């Protein structure tokens, strides 16, 4: 986490040194000194070039060590082989903030990766912090300071952008409709997103935060900070490298491991981050959130000049969690007075026929006022054409009345879809006073208003009031210590898996019912176990290397007699001799054979993600898990509300409620098992993967029929 | 279908009469005469107003009957109560083309609906054709003629638009980047989309056809014509009213029944129509298809100034069926020469570091030429910034070299993503010569190029070469005649369903294996049937009113003995006495009890759609059909290729191939059953719904275990 001071060294320095400044100037010189001077930066400026001399009226110091002061910020754009030495000098000089612009580190070859690692070591414990390498640095439009070696048009607004690519700062007028603060983290060798979130959350100049993410290092820290920030202001995420091809390219770009996209998706949701799907959505969401303070609900009134446009809007709405408002009777009655007799008053309200009778401006203004005052309406969406240039358009130019109405009703968004050859000219007029966004399609508009609704009415309240009254379950400490010893022993013995009977003990400690399982190493033991359990029984191969036991002929169900047990035992032992499979058979597991036509099979599992740690998975079991991939993920641990939400996310929920004549199943017991699983994987970080598959969910209780656990 | 002459009456008339012209002029007068005069239309113009007099230098005739000639086109915008009479006069006068602008017909109240029906009757058999009511009429920018009462900026291009809403003509510069021909069908009381497709397909001025569809009348005719047109040029479809709310609004707008969206989706796919998701996609697709002649394949080279942008592009690509090109070795080698040592040559190719060394323009031009000449590259996507105004940007403005390269390589699209504050200015320069489209996001670009690939390399070839060598199966004519008699009898007896034993006969006639089923009306018959079939048997209730038999306790499986049969029979009979269910029990069905752990259960069905007729459905059976809705649809009949495609569309295909150790199943037999089903529902239009559920697909053969058939 960066302190206020540390951030100010980067974003608002009193003095800056530009290291590696060329004596050439002009566009192809990439001379960052030239750019800083152009902005009218009013701090002290120094430049360094080992050859010395002078450029643009500035002395070129031969080394940063020769500077008369320890400046706030150093910006390094030397050749990459010089960077390590220069950063050492900066540390020596006591400079606290360093930006490394140079490319060819983790984004390059092996040598570059080694140099990047060295940069990390150099600054460690020195108090010097570093942005980059492979960055254009920072932009602060509030004081007009930036470190880019490229000139670019800067448009000020109240959003900020943390990115891993310079284009999001240089192109910010496009991507985020302007910029307040921008930080390009590049390869993020030192400073990463999490370090900046607290500062940006507290900065009153910043109303919206944008993150362009290629990869993250510590997922859990990021989530925690994102949650805190999300209480204060909306955080938009553009995650790139989501596809296989994109992820491959990300490694070459910033050395980032893009990670599994569904895990990021889950992490974003759990932290209240708003994912934007593309750069266009990012721009539109920024404009929307910077313009509309909030939206009181999801009920949208649509005023349209065209029935066809109203239908398109209704279609779009249904994709983004918004609803057509049901007008109050008084609204209907007031509109009826001006609508032609043959026309029903509905929402979307096509006001064109009324406009032709009573005058278009009059009717638009009147209807807008009526629906804005309707308590059953939370926002108004106006469809308005741009068939002629606004200056020429005497008939359909209603920009004034829209702007007036929007200014009078800051409590409800007035949003506009403006279409036609002059839509950009109309949009400029509508957006100028700062009360309206003029969208270019109903889909984009509804996506943005839907996000506004979700943030203000769902995400923010949820982040502000986490389910505090849900204590984590307390498990028997003695039993948990015993579990810890199981892992300790397994680690010491370099085991890759934990199997029965220890497995049973682990689940028992965490109150997850698992079928009683006996281990037998020879036929006599197997027969004795079957006798003790009572026929019919199930026999399964006990092997450290088998995951899909049944696929390999390692599972025998419904064994009714000692003969059947003997037969199965022989077959399982024979697996060892199979030259193709080469399965080491340690012994067999004997369990009671349980069938229950009223129950369903569920899979519960956890897998350690390199970025976010253990990720829980829940889904319908059997072949349908693989076939339909109808599963829900959460980063562990989870609370009761989240566990239930996971279950409801999948189609299994319908089965659990009792499907087509079947009895309802024990959802409460299932939730408890999910909570326990979340605790197990958090308490025992050795676990790499853990599956309960299948877990039988019954009308009363649950019962795991098999389990699998591997350690890291 | 409209003849060339008939279309010309509407789109290119030699003379036109405007009926219902007001004496007022100016914007709020909606005086279409004023608009027609403004365009400089060079045909003869007449105007009608019952009050007579003069306006804008034109005589106002009191009635169309007073005109000195039978004009080519009449445009009616009288009050709605006058329309019927006026249309009668037009017919009387011998006018062949009538546009009714007036609103308040099927888009209004009951009275309006009656009047619309009357309009249809008036013109029937007269040779007079009608567009509207509730329309702005037509636009022809090639001769600058239009019938709109609103003034609007017209931008000429080579697309056409058939819509059900005037905004798509008036706003065409936005929606389709311009317009050649436009027809607003309004409520489509007479002329509908299908009537115009052949003409537009043959018009050499038109390169792209757009359809805005709220509803369609004859789905099959539309599909057939769309297929023929799709061979000649791409047809884009914007279907509105796809959501429940939107569909409701469509009824009020044009009186259209929006229909079930998944049926439209299927029909569009089967006819080679390209569905556009929103108005923005429509504009971008039109621009793309009007600019790029074709695209030879799906392998895209990406040249980028920013690694981050390359990653975003790779992500976008994977959503739209395009692939990152794998550069040829010679391309890699030639780029390696100019790339810095530390940098690998990959696609997306980040040319920025090379540009910093050798000059940006030089490197961009060089790399572009190299990749355009690579035989493993089908199109090049260039990421290019717009940080400064193009006139000011000496460094990064590469518009000239991009335009030059694109002009030199018409065989491969050169597409650009231009981003930043001046993207619109750059885009205008890039698009002016007509060789490049400058997209505003990689997602939109890839969606458009993906559609270009699909149309030219998949849709068009498939439409040109329908699977001719796939003869429809020939069934025994005698058997089919027997089936026809079954339906004839059922209709005569006013039956709502057909049940066993006739059901069995129908499927046998069409070679769909169905389990041998005996009908028993009393216990003695039931016992005899069981004896004849051999134990164990299944007993099911025979009732005209039961669909989910098993949910109501109407199915007994695995009956092993006469006692079990007796027991089941009594229970089924008892259903009749159940006061809540009130099921008329006609008798019982007795079938052999068949289980087969190696087989899977499929559901095959057909349902008659009001627009498109019988629609086939295929999906995984059992509770999973309802739970996962993993089903595929096709309008019947289908050929072998389509049947297989249906199966592959669902997850069941993996099971059929043999899933996790199970044997592969008889896909060939399943395909045959699907083809047969398609034939049944086409041959016997009485069928309203028909289900085979479950159909057991086995390692060898298929077997239907139950069936259901209802008639219209």
Summarize the structure.
The structure is a homodimer of 712-residue chains. With 712 residues, chain A is an alpha/beta fold. Chain A is 39% helix and 21% strand.
Question: What this model shows, in words?
Answer:
Two copies of one chain form a homodimer. With 712 residues, chain A is α/β, with parallel strands linked by helices. Chain A folds into five domains: 1-134, 3-Layer(aba) Sandwich (Rossmann fold), CATH 3.40.50; 152-291, Succinyl-CoA synthetase domains (Rossmann fold), CATH 3.40.50.261; 292-464, Succinyl-CoA synthetase domains (Rossmann fold, 3-Layer(aba) Sandwich); 475-515 and 594-712, ATP-grasp fold, B domain (D-amino Acid Aminotransferase, Chain A, domain 1); 524-588, 2-Layer Sandwich (Dna Ligase, domain 1). The first copy, chain A, is 39% helix and 21% strand. Chain A has 26 helices and 31 strands. In chain A, the strands form five sheets. Chain A has a seven-stranded mixed β-sheet with strand order 3-4-2-1-5-6-7, with helices on both faces. The first copy, chain A, is flat, with a radius of gyration of 32 Å. Chain A starts with a helix and ends with a strand. Chains A and B meet through helix 5, helix 6, helix 9, helix 12 and strand 16 of A and helix 5, helix 6, helix 9, helix 12 and strand 16 of B.
């Amino acid at each position: 986490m960066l302190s206020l001071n540390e951030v100010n060294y980067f974003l608002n320095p009193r003095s800056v040194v530009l290291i590696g400044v060329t004596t050439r100037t002009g566009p192809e010189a990439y001379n960052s000194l030239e750019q800083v001077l152009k902005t009218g930066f009013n701090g002290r400026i120094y430049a360094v070039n080992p050859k010395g001399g002078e450029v643009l009226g500035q002395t070129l110091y031969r080394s940063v060590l020769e500077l008369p002061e320890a400046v706030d910020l150093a910006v390094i754009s030397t050749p990459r082989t010089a960077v390590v030495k220069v950063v050492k000098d900066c540390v020596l000089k006591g400079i606290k903030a360093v930006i490394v612009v140079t490319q060819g580190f983790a984004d390059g070859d092996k040598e570059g990766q080694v140099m990047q690692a060295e940069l990390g070591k150099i600054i460690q414990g020195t108090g010097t912090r570093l942005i980059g390498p492979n960055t254009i640095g920072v932009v602060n439009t509030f004081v007009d300071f930036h470190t880019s070696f490229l000139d670019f048009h800067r448009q000020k607004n109240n959003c900020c952008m943390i990115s891993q690519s310079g284009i999001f700062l240089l192109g910010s007028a496009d991507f985020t409709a302007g910029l307040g603060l921008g930080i390009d983290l590049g390869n993020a060798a030192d400073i990463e997103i999490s370090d900046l979130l607290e500062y940006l959350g507290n900065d009153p100049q910043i109303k919206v935060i944008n993150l362009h993410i290629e990869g993250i290092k510590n997922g859990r820290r990021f989530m925690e900070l994102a949650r805190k920030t999300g209480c204060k202001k909306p955080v938009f995420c553009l995650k790139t490298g989501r596809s296989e091809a994109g992820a491959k390219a990300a490694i070459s770009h910033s050395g980032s491991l893009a990670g599994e996209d569904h895990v990021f998706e889950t992490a974003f949701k759990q932290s209240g981050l708003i994912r934007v799907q593309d750069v266009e959505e990012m721009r539109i969401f920024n404009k929307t959130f910077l313009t509309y303070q909030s939206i009181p609900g999801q009920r949208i009134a649509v005023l349209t000049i065209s029935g066809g446009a109203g239908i398109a809007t209704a279609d779009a709405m249904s994709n983004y969690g918004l609803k057509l408002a049901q007008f109050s009777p008084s609204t209907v009655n007031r509109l009826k007075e001006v609508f032609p007799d043959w026309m029903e008053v509905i929402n979307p309200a096509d006001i064109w026929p009324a406009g032709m009778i009573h005058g278009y401006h009059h009717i638009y203004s009147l209807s807008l006022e009526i629906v804005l005052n309707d308590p059953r309406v939370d926002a108004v969406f106006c469809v308005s054409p741009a068939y002629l240039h606004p200056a020429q358009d005497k008939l359909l130019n209603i920009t004034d009345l829209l702007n007036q109405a929007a200014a009078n009703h800051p409590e409800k968004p007035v949003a506009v879809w403006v279409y036609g050859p002059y839509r950009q000219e109309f949009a400029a007029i509508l957006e100028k006073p700062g009360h309206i966004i003029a969208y270019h399609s109903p889909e984009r508009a509804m996506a943005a208003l839907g996000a506004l609704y979700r943030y203000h009415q769902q995400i923010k309240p949820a982040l502000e009031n986490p389910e505090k009254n849900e204590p984590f379950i307390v498990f028997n400490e003695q039993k948990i210590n015993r579990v810890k010893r199981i892992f300790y022993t397994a680690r010491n013995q370099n085991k890759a898996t934990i199997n029965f009977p220890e497995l049973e003990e682990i689940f028992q400690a965490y109150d997850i019912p698992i079928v009683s399982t006996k281990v037998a190493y020879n036929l006599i033991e197997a027969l004795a176990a079957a006798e003790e359990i009572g026929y019919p029984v199930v026999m399964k191969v006990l092997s450290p290397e088998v995951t899909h036991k049944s696929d390999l002929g390692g599972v025998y169900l419904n064994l009714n007699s000692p003969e059947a047990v003997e037969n199965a035992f022989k077959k399982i032992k024979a697996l060892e001799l199979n030259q193709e499979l080469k399965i080491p058979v340690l012994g067999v597991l004997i369990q009671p054979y349980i069938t229950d036509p009223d129950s369903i099979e569920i899979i519960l599992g956890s897998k350690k993600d390199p970025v976010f740690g253990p990720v829980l998975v829940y889904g319908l079991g059997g072949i349908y898990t693989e076939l339909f991939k109808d599963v829900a993920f959460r980063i562990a641990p989870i609370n009761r509300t989240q566990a239930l939400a996971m279950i409801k996310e999948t189609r299994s929920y319908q089965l659990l409620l009792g499907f087509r004549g079947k009895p309802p199943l024990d959802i409460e017991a299932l939730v408890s098992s999910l909570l326990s699983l979340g605790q197990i994987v958090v308490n025992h970080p050795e676990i790499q993967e853990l599956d309960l598959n299948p877990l039988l969910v019954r009308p009363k209780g649950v019962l795991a029929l098999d389990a699998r656990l591997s350690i890291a």
